[in-house]
Amino acid sequence: MKERPLPSGAEAQAMIAEARKALWVMVGFLAVIWIVQIVNWATDYALSFDFGIRARELSSLPEALTAPFLHFSWGHIESNSGPLFIFGFLAAYRGVRKFFGVTALIVIGSGLGVWLVSPANGVTAGASGVVLGYFGYIIVRGLFDRRPIDIVIGLVMALCFAYQFTALLPAEEGISWQGHLFGFGAGVIGGWVFRERRRKQVEPAPADPTVMLDPPKQP
Q1: Which residues does the UniProt record annotate as the domain Peptidase S54 rhomboid (predicted)?
Q2: Radius of gyration (Cα) for the chain, nearest Å?
């Protein structure tokens, strides 16, 4: 197994440019969910109940796309915002276009998991499934891409935020461990699906042998 060298020169500059884009993408994402939260709070969280996921109701399947933008309290959105920004930025700094693909996979995977497995007669909303999805993605991305810097980032994040693994298990009532587990799984799958493909190096065909002729001898 070959590891890719650390970026330098033009590659490093391109990575810095993508990191700037990633920063503003996450700032925009957080701004949107906080603006939605203000409107949601002002309407006594009607948006969360109207556009959250209701398990196994066919009419609620589209809510898998809206639920990550909604929360049920200020404490709920505050607990998600920090990890969402950190994990989201680290997931996006390699490429914003790829990040959008990873995000779509995580949102759909987490939402479907909630819709299929969550208890009936409940409504699920919140960005925590996306948070755990980004967490899973950045842990495995370096292994799939074989980039030393991303392997280190994944290891550091796994150690520093090890408590996040407890969110994958059934816990107290009212916590959607289903969304966490399926989101995390979708993030790991995203690391494989969106891995960097290596172009096969075509070895040049061997050149025809050169025929050496002896020079004519002088009489």
Answers
A1: 63-196
A2: 24
